[in-house]
């Protein structure tokens, strides 16, 4: 009994120390980061008056700006079909209008109005991250349609993470098509365009205790949770995540506008932990390893 108590104490102490090591945000940097847009700030996306015209962009669609005061021109993107991931297995057809605040694909289109670079203007963007890639160095491309890949066409979205109605997250156990496991969970009933809630099973509950659950999933219109740009990214905070990790609430360091504790420094597993929220088959807990904390 004494040995069991000592072992439990060691596990609890190691977990506490690991959590204490989670990095705090940079205290000298505005959390809006790159979306300060060289001093333009909020108005680079949200024009307080007149939509795109308020930002000097002409548009043939008078409705742009009527939702979220959007100040970028969406016209070139209306009705476009973009093939994401796995040689186009996840095609997204963007809306042909700008009328529904509940259409999750409209959110994708809004992000692309700056981050496409193929059909849309790059505006004031330089096309690469302000942040240097940890460990390997250099900067990553920030334009999806023209990302500088050697031999790629000007409209290559195949090397970008899938989003949209076909990029769904499951609770199906083993998936033989991909030789991986989904989480042990239950998808709750929701309505098209709304957030989808998931009831976690034993393994997923333990994962949430170790890392949390920060992604936001939308109903794809067929009762399945789908991934959008804003599932993974908080466009308003580049450097800081306010939330709970391992049961400890606080402000934690993040990078690349990732919506969660994401600190890809040497030895940190926070990057893998973030991805495992959807990719449960690669999580420790799905393989019976329950006590690895987020470091």
Question: Can you describe this structure?
Answer:
This protein has a domain at 163-295. Helices cover 17% and strands 14% of the residues. It has five helices and eleven strands; from the N terminus they run H-E-E-H-E-E-E-E-E-H-E-E-H-E-E-H. A three-stranded antiparallel sheet has the order 3-9-8. A two-stranded antiparallel sheet has the order 1-2. The model is unreliable at 1-20 (pLDDT under 50).
Radius of gyration: 21 Å
Sequence of secondary-structure elements: HEEHEEEEEHEEHEEH
Structural class determined from secondary elements:
alpha+beta
Could you tell me the mean pLDDT? Answer: 85
Oligomer: single chain
Distance between the termini: 29 Å
The biggest sheet, with number of strands, parallel, antiparallel or mixed sense and barrel status, is:
3 strands, antiparallel
Strand order of the largest sheet: 3-9-8
* Helical content (DSSP H or I, runs of 4+): 10-25%
| Low-confidence spans | 1-20
- How much strand? 5-15%
Give the CA-based shape. globular
How many alpha or pi helices?
5
How many DSSP-defined strands? 11
What is shown here, in short?
The protein has 295 residues and is an alpha+beta fold. It has five helices and eleven strands. It has a domain at 163-295.
């Amino acid at each position: 009994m004494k040995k069991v108590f000592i072992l439990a104490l060691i596990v609890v102490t190691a977990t506490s120390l690991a959590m204490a090591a989670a990095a705090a945000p940079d205290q000298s940097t505005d959390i809006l980061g790159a979306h300060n847009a060289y001093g333009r700030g909020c108005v680079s996306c949200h024009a307080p008056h007149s939509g795109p015209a308020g930002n000097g962009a002409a548009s043939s669609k008078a409705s742009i700006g009527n939702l979220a005061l959007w100040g970028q021109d969406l016209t070139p993107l209306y009705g476009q079909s973009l093939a994401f991931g796995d040689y186009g297995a996840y095609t997204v057809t963007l809306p042909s209008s700008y009328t529904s605040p509940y259409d999750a694909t409209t959110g994708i289109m809004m992000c692309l109005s700056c981050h496409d670079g193929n059909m849309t203007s790059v505006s004031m963007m330089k096309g690469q991250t302000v942040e240097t890639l940890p460990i390997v160095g250099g900067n990553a491309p920030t334009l999806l349609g023209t990302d500088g890949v050697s031999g790629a066409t000007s409209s290559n979205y195949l090397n970008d993470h899938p989003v949209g109605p076909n990029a769904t997250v499951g609770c199906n156990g083993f998936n033989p098509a991909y030789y991986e496991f989904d989480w042990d969970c239950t998808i709750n009933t929701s309505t098209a365009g709304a957030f989808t809630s998931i009831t976690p099973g034993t393994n997923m509950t333990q994962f949430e205790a170790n890392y949390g659950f920060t992604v936001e999933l939308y109903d794809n219109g067929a009762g399945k949770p789908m991934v959008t740009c804003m599932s993974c990214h908080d466009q308003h905070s580049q450097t800081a995540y306010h939330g709970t990790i391992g049961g400890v609430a606080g402000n934690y360091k993040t990078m690349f506008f990732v919506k969660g504790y994401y600190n890809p420094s040497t030895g940190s597993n926070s990057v893998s932990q973030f991805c495992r929220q959807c990719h449960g088959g690669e999580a420790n807990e799905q393989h019976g390893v329950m006590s690895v904390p987020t470091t």
